[in-house]
């Protein structure tokens, strides 16, 4: 796949970061194929869960749901590297609440010990259209995923279906037009449940030990990671195709869980000071909740299983530190 020529990212305008004018419209026309190809669409609601309430939550979820086939009773690790522009276009689109926004990432399910150049990873475009989250992805060997998301580019061997070709072209165009580069890596441990009977479209996940780094972006790197959320908080995500069952909303209300708008990518960008908070960003639920739970210094202080006393972990998701 031939990489398209790069263009310098337009300067921010007084109305906010990002492109403007006829040139931007042309770029948008070339890159906005997102709404034409979907793997799935869903609504997502996120909550913060104190660790001392996690066991109670698990018990309630298992009354109504089954363990995800890959989760079992211990869950599984996830590591992702997120791509953005030099001026953090995707970050700002999230912070400023654009109704249509996207993120590009390469994601590995499993431990760092399991990762090799031939390991299967996912290249994903996750996007938001109004209130609906859409995610499309392709499975590639790790070496090919890195090529696809780099100036080198990637040309698949053999026949490729039309949908896959369109997706690969979209990734290639985004990387080339916007000069995307690795920006942050995130890692966490996930437990997952799937709905049964009337709730077959329901998926619920619980993510622990959220951490990241802003350098050395190999997914199996030994580079240290820092907590991007206080260690005693986990993130619950409720994902539904059409509706959230009443028992879920009753459960979260009964447990007094806090609804938050949280992005693991944005948390990482802010935790490492890659950009100041937007002057147009209004304080949201997460600001208030974190203010109630702990001082900001707890984002890096305080031990967590598999970490040092200052909250810095070894390479994420080693088999020796898989904990729940």
CATH topology assignment: mRNA Triphosphatase Cet1, Chain A
| Percentage of residues assigned to helices | 10-25%
Along the chain, the helix and strand elements come as HEHEEHEEEHHEEEEHEHHE
Radius of gyration: 20 Å
Output the strand order for the largest sheet. 1-6-5-4-3-7-8-10
Count of extended strands: 12
Q: Assign the structural class, choosing from mainly alpha, mainly beta, alpha/beta, alpha+beta, or little secondary structure.
A: alpha+beta
The CATH homologous superfamily is termed VTC, catalytic tunnel domain
Mean pLDDT: 78
CATH architecture: Alpha-Beta Barrel
Name the overall outline: globular
Uncertain runs are 4-38, 278-283, 294-316, 320-324
Provide the β-strand percentage band: 25-35%
Structure annotation, total helices: 8
Number of domains: 1
Question: How many angstroms does the end-to-end distance come to?
Answer: 42 Å
Report the biggest beta sheet as strand number plus sense, adding barrel if it closes.
8 strands, antiparallel, barrel
| CATH structural class | Alpha Beta
